Amino acid sequence: MSGSPIVVLTALDVEYEAVREKLDDPRLHRHPQGTRFEVGRLAGSRCRIALGLVGKGNQSAAVLAERAIAEFTPAALLFVGVAGALHSHIALGDVVVATHVYAFHGGTSQDDGFKSRPRVWEVSHGADQIARHIARVRSWSQGLGAAQQAPEVHFGPIAAGEVVLNSKLSAHARWLQRNYNDALAIEMEGAGVAQAAHLNRALPVVVIRGVSDQADGTKEITDREQWQARAVANAAAFTRALAESLAAEEQDPDRHAATGTKRSSEMSGTIRNVAKDNARVGVQAGHVHGGIRMTGERRPPADPAEAVAGLAVLLQQARAADHLDEETYQAAQAELAAARETLRTTTPQDIGAVTLALKKVRGLVGDVAVLAAEVASVIALVQGLT
């Protein structure tokens, strides 16, 4: 496993277990001050996850989020858990992804009443775009079971405070409706996590919540009906898909073009390996930065569908040579199958979905340099269709 991990934080044990179930061979990681994390990779993926439990409340979330950021230098920070819905169109089990987080308890008390002075943090544009694409594609919910209707994914503000709201009629509920009527859900940790990420050079942070109650006085009933576990299972499934996509973006050497930052190869020069006659060269370098371009006999076909089919054959050969384990091989073939289906059924072709699937394949086969380079060349071919 290589590359920066994705840190995933939760507040409750039921939330922690929902994410932990998705990790292969999680290993204990002890912080010097006693905080315990578990680090593993998502099953069938090269994406590394550092999982932590912060407990309830924004203050605890902020402190331990900062600790996790310093310890792991993550590519992104995700907070996953349950929340109460603030609007009737949001059903139990639906997923809410924060576009921004309100720390709504800030204010000033004056003679004519309490005046709200909130703080607000917006999700980064890139992370928001990836999350919305995952929601549109809807493949993230395939593992939830055929008997369950796929939950809806809602994007909008989340209100993060220090109280559990379980009423539509209380003074607190009316105050929220009056001052934060665009908030979709209410919870208790998002503001702390967002602040910690903001203090670390705007680290991408996404808050993902499964709706376990309607914040309307029925929380005890929904808790007895196991809606916490059901809602967080949905949120964890979406989190898995988002983490994989964020990791694929992190490993993409071309992602820096969108941010205006220079690639390492542009700053330190380009390494070229040249093979002549019958010689073949993989990668000769202690550290490889930027893209890898291979030239020689093999060139990807001009047709993207044919090129993706060719990758499937190369995967079979790599598996037969024992360069890939069975789980990685099956996961990569599933992504290639999704890419082929998208190329076949979408008009105009959904280049973004195909590219994302191929980037996941590249992340899966990253330890096999020649195969990863072949995938990179097909990605370039597909992106050239735009």
Automatic annotation (TrEMBL):
Record keywords, A-Z: Glycosidase, Hydrolase
Molecular functions per Gene Ontology: adenosylhomocysteine nucleosidase activity; methylthioadenosine nucleosidase activity
Superkingdom, taxonomy of origin: Bacteria
Record-level GO cellular component terms: cytosol
GO terms (BP aspect): L-methionine salvage from S-adenosylmethionine; nucleoside metabolic process
CDD domains: MTAN (cd09008)
EC annotation from Swiss-Prot or TrEMBL: 3.2.2.9
PANTHER family in UniProt: 5'-METHYLTHIOADENOSINE/S-ADENOSYLHOMOCYSTEINE NUCLEOSIDASE, 5'-METHYLTHIOADENOSINE_S-ADENOSYLHOMOCYSTEINE NUCLEOSIDASE
Protein name as annotated: 5'-methylthioadenosine/S-adenosylhomocysteine nucleosidase
Organism: Actinomadura macrotermitis
Gene giving rise to this polypeptide: mtnN
